[in-house]
């Protein structure tokens, strides 16, 4: 016990380390800073000074990501979530805001709508590789955060806000969008209007035959989870937004079935 108290006393305030480490990152020594972030935060965790460890890891994740160091930033973001668990930190609005800040720090880079409509194929290949790295890093972070939130105060499916963040990032950053994954997380979220906007955007660029399937999948997902209210809001919003966006609402037998199904339910 006395040895642990000694370790606690030896550690300086976290802000001192944060300032030193930020300078290392700003000087361009990303790898060196990464090792220091991990080792320094581990000492605070070992001394059970979880709040300060979280401050260090949060700062590190955000600054590495702001410098485009996705692999380093995502690793520190995961350690941030891991430390939340070790410290048995409850889910609340303050922690959610800190998770949002990390999420917003992940880079966003537009890819051509038609991936093959470019001249420089080598550059395209590099862009696709970078996009996959970003999506994998952000997805790993948010999935860990969702799991933590489910275990420490959010509902059984995890924080709805975190599900929305993950769905949005997968949709906006993936070279080839997996709408099944996007739908999975939006349905566990709490914003069917935002989901409708995403689906309308997808309708404007998807392959023929994918439009009605995407809408049907979304409605059936809501219904299977017992959420008739959001299923109806989603359909109403899609119809409203397709009119204003001048995107064609699919008029197929599958859509007729979904409409009748909602009326029956």
Automatic annotation (TrEMBL):
It comes from the Eukaryota. Gene3D superfamilies: Tetratricopeptide repeat domain. Coiled coil: none annotated. Belongs to the GET4 family. It holds the Pfam family GET4. InterPro entries: GET4 (IPR007317), TPR-like_helical_dom_sf (IPR011990). This is Golgi to ER traffic protein 4 homolog. GO terms for biological process: protein insertion into ER membrane.
